[in-house]
Every structure is written in C-alpha cells, then in structure tokens.
Amino acid sequence: QVQLVESGGGLVQAGGSLRLSCAASGSTFSTYAMGWFRQAAGKEREFVARINRYDDGKSYYADSVEGRFTISRDNARNTVFLQMNSLKPEDTAVYYCGARVYSGRTLGVSKYEYDYWGPGTQVTVSS
User: Fold this and answer.
1) pLDDT, position 55
2) d(Cα 50, Cα 109) in Å, to the nearest integer?
3) What is the pLDDT of residues 7-57, one digit of tens each?
4) pLDDT digits (tens, 9 = 90+) for 81-95
5) 35 neighbors 13 (Cβ within 8 angstroms)
6) 1, 61, 118, 122: which has the fewest Cβ within 10 Å?
7) How far is 112 from 100, CA to CA, in rounded Å?
8) Distance, CA of 102 to CA of 105 (rounded, Å)
9) Which residue, 5, 52, 49, is CA-closest to 24?
C-alpha cells in the first residue's frame, strides 16, 4: 500500500503562484510514475501533469497548463512537486497526487491509469 498526502494549496489572486507538494510513504517511490490531476466543482477529474519514474527528466503537461506549471520529484525525500505560476481563476480546483505502479504502453493522462491517490488539496484563484 502507498499513502499519498498533498499540501501547499490555498487562496491566491490571479497571476499569483503556489507550490504543491505530495509526500509518499514506502521505499519504492522511485519506481512509480507520478501525476497531478485536478477536479473543479461539478466537473470530472482531469489530467494536469505527469513525470516518469526514476526522475529521468521526462514530463508531460496538459495544454491548459503548459508553460505555467512545472512538475518535479525528489526521490530521496519521496516527494513530487507542482510549481504553479501565472494562476488563473479557471485553475480553481481540488488538486490530487496520483501514483502509477504499472506504466504499460499508455500515456498516463487518464485518472484510471493510476493506482493510488492522496486526499487532495484545495487551490482557489480569485479574479
């Protein structure tokens, strides 16, 4: 079992920045691909960003956040980060950290591809 806990959410004005963290339990963190998803009120959970296992420098972003958000990981500390800059009101959502044990041949942009989830952290961007 893997336990994930997000932190760093809050209320910011449009144009501001936040840095989210996701702390994972266990000793096999480096073998998991990690992803960030978000779910706005009344909408389905959607892909934000993912990073490959072993921190090989390969990452992928949703078009809506490309150039504004950056995902990174620190395997020694069992932590993945999401740096969010130039925030917009439409970024308002609960942000979830996901762990993907089996990568397979899929891209990792669907919520159904992830095996473990944290409880989420609220991000609210005011206009």
Assistant:
1) 64
2) 8
3) 999 999 999 999 999 999 988 899 999 999 999 999 999 999 999 987 676
4) 999 999 999 999 999
5) no
6) 1
7) 10
8) 9
9) 5
The chain-wide mean pLDDT, for the chain, equals: 94
φ, ψ for residue 94, nearest 5 deg: -85, 125
Residue 73 parent element (H or E): strand 69-74
d(CA 29, CA 39): 24
Please name which of 98, 101, 95, 88 lies closest in space to residue 127, comparing C-alpha atoms: 88
- One-letter amino acid at 110 equals S
pLDDT value at residue 26: 84
Q: Output the six-digit token pair for 113.
A: 């591809």
Q: How does strand 116-117 pair with strand 121-126?
A: unpaired
Q: Which residue has the tokens 């920045």?
A: 17
